[in-house]
Structure formats: structure tokens, C-alpha cells
Amino acid sequence: MPKTDERLAVIIPTKDRPQDIHLLLESISAQEVWPAQIIIVDGGDANLENIVADFKYFDIFYVRQKPPSLPMQRNIGLSYLKDGIEIAAFFDDDISLCDNMIDVAMKFLSNSDNNLAGVT
User: Which pick of 12, 16, 50, 115 has the fewest CB atoms within 10 Å?
Assistant: First the structure.
């Protein structure tokens, strides 16, 4: 089982892309390092609860937000961060992660100076 980085949360704003969300969660599950928290902020009409239920091994918080608004969905995601989360990553709902992407990104962030504001 992959290790969980307790400092990391992933926020995923989405709208009517259930297949993409499923593929993204599969992509995250294939990583060597998992986020401590995944927050899905859904502005669409298709309910994703059945997809979230397929990934019980993740700590996923699923919230619906109407009307959809990418900035609002990101801010809502930030408002649900658990205590102890130091790094919030925003993932588009239609991406697939490269091998070890989370591990590489977290190592980079761990070795960067404190003036770093973001990574893309």
C-alpha cells in the first residue's frame, strides 16, 4: 500500500465529468505517495457519490456547489482542508498523473525554500 503524505490535500473542482473523475482517482491510486485528503467540489448535474464510493481507501470529501464557478469551487475546497494540511494541490478533473508525480512534487517542495508560493 502506498504511503500517505499527511501534509498534502488535493482539491478537484469538476462539472459533469464522472468518467474523468474516475480516471483521475485511479491515476492518484496508482501513485507511490497518496494525499492525506481529496476534496471534490462538484458544480455539475451528475452525482459522483457512486464514484467516490469506489475509492474508499482515500479520505475523500465530496461537496456539491451550484452554480458552478471554478474560483468559487477552489475556494470552497480550501475551506474544507483538515488541520495539519500544509500543501493544497489543485488538479483539473481531466488529467492523468505521470508515474510518481506526487512523490516527485512533494520531494521538490520539501527541498525548496520557504519563499515558494506555487508549482506548476
Answer: 115
